[in-house]
Each structure stands twice: as structure tokens, then as C-alpha cells.
């Protein structure tokens, strides 16, 4: 059995978020949460919240009564690009240069090890 959580329009670029997501992809949830919690990278906080949400969604399911949260595994961790905020900044010779402020979507799927 599996459960998922989606965090949308997170104001961190997908490139930076994928850097921390690659550290925890495929790990046991308790190990992944420890890695995210004690990481110095700032983009680990929204990812940690999404993993917590996926675990809570799994535990609130009717069929998850006998499964412990320590038995869960990150089956899928996907970081997708979202819309960009397009801004302008002063450039040389009185010109304006574009600035693209990127955002991302986080999709987390957790499953119990028995089905893996």
C-alpha cells in the first residue's frame, strides 16, 4: 500500500531541490527524515515537510493500522518545475536584464517494505 503527498509552488529552484532530493531518494523514511532535518542546505525544510505529510497520509489510511512508520520507504521522490516569476533588474548602460525566479513542485510517494 502506498500514500502520496504533493507540495506545489515551492519557491526554491528545481535544481537546488533536486540536489537534496538525490540524497534521500529510495531510503527508509526515518533515515531520510534524519538526513533532511540535520542538513545545512536550506531547501531541505520544504522537502522534510512533504515527507512528513506523506507519512501522515499513509498512517491515516484505514489499511495502515498494523504498519509502523519505521517500516515505510520513499518509493518515489519527484521534483518538477513550476511557474516562474519574471522580474527585471538594472543592467549596464541603462538596460533592463530579465531575472527568472523559479519554483518547483514536490511529489513524495511512500510505501511499506512488504510490497517493494
Key descriptive features of the protein:
single chain; 116 residues; alpha+beta; Ribosomal Protein L22, Chain A; three-stranded antiparallel β-sheet; two-stranded antiparallel ribbon; 31% helix; elongated
Tell me about this structure:
With 116 residues, the protein is of the alpha+beta class. It has one domain (2-115): Ribosomal Protein L22, Chain A. The protein contains three helices and five strands, in the order E-H-H-H-E-E-E-E. The chain has helices at 14-24, 29-37, 44-59, and strands spanning 2-10, 72-81, 85-90, 96-101, 104-112. The strands form two sheets. The protein has a three-stranded antiparallel beta sheet. The N and C termini lie close together (10 Å).
The description of the largest β-sheet is:
3 strands, antiparallel
Mean pLDDT: 91
Radius of gyration from the CA trace? 17 Å
Strands, total number: 5
- CATH evolutionary superfamily: Ribosomal protein L22/L17
Task: For the largest sheet, list the strands in their spatial order.
Answer: 1-5-2
For the terminal residues, how far apart are their CA atoms? 10 Å
Number of helices: 3
The CATH class is Alpha Beta
Order of helices and strands: EHHHEEEE
- Percentage of residues in helical conformation: 25-40%
Low confidence ranges: none
In total, the number of domains comes to: 1
Q: What shape does the CA trace take?
A: elongated
Task: Based on the coordinates given, report the CATH architecture.
Answer: Alpha-Beta Complex
Tell me the fraction of residues in β-strands, as a range.
Answer: 25-35%
Amino acid at each position: 500500500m502506498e500514500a502520496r503527498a504533493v507540495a506545489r509552488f515551492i519557491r526554491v529552484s528545481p535544481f537546488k531541490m533536486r540536489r537534496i532530493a538525490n540524497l534521500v531518494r529510495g531510503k527508509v523514511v526515518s533515515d531520510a527524515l534524519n538526513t533532511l532535518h540535520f542538513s545545512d542546505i536550506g531547501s531541505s525544510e520544504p522537502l522534510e515537510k512533504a515527507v512528513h505529510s506523506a507519512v501522515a497520509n499513509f498512517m491515516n489510511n484505514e489499511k495502515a493500522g498494523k504498519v509502523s512508520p519505521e517500516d515505510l520507504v520513499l518509493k518515489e521522490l519527484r521534483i518538477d518545475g513550476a511557474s516562474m516569476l519574471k522580474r527585471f533588474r538594472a543592467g549596464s548602460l541603462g538596460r533592463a536584464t530579465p531575472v527568472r525566479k523559479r519554483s518547483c513542485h514536490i511529489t513524495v510517494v511512500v510505501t511499506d517494505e512488504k510490497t517493494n
